[in-house]
Amino acid sequence: xxxxxxxxxxxxxxxxxxxxxxxxxxxxxxxxxxxxxxxxxxxxxxxxxxxxxxxxxxxxxxxxxxxxxxxxxxxxxxxxxxxxxxxxxxxxxxxxxxxxxxxxxxxxxxxxxxxxxxxxxxxxxxxxxxxxxxxxxxxxxxxxxxxxxxxxxxxxxxxxxxxxxxxxxxxxxxxxxxxxxxxxxxxxxxxxxxxxxxxxxxxxxxxxxxxxx
Length: 213
Fold this sequence. Notes:
- The chain is an alpha/beta fold.
- The chain has one domain (10-211): Rossmann fold (3-Layer(aba) Sandwich).
- It has helices spanning 10-15, 22-42, 47-58, 75-82, 95-103, 146-153, 166-171, 174-183, and strands at residues 66-69, 88-92, 109-112, 128-137, 154-165, 187-199, 202-211.
- It has a 7-stranded mixed beta sheet, with helices on both faces.
């Protein structure tokens, strides 16, 4: 990773230069939890609101069972709650972030200390009407293979709503992972917003998939 700045916010810039090691990511977010909402607000982080609205366009049932994977401080859950969804669970690698998410009151349950790549050990397979993961598929956080984990948690016919930072998309094989799942008939791409607003630092792609089978 270059030493050039990625974000106008120092903490966000440091997050984008993490090495993907779960212990390092956990420690970083535990330290950042108290200021996370302030720092992301300073760069107009609007990915949670965009993702929640995308879900609403494809899933009108506000009683649907939702999982916010990598929920952070609960920004996505709050947006979902504002749209009327009530059956929301969340998990995060950082215990401190998960505690802040729980404090929002938007979630029925929040768990900390959950590595996304191992989430099927803690959550029942094919149990959720929709799985969202916003702000997680970014450099230094999770590999594209995390998509397979999230897919396992969604029920057949369920949805995946995922954001990918553009630099993550450009520097990983995320598209190859998607193409393989499409080619195998495991998912259908319902919607893709390309180069859409993410924050002041740049754009993201937003994906809505339906799980087939």
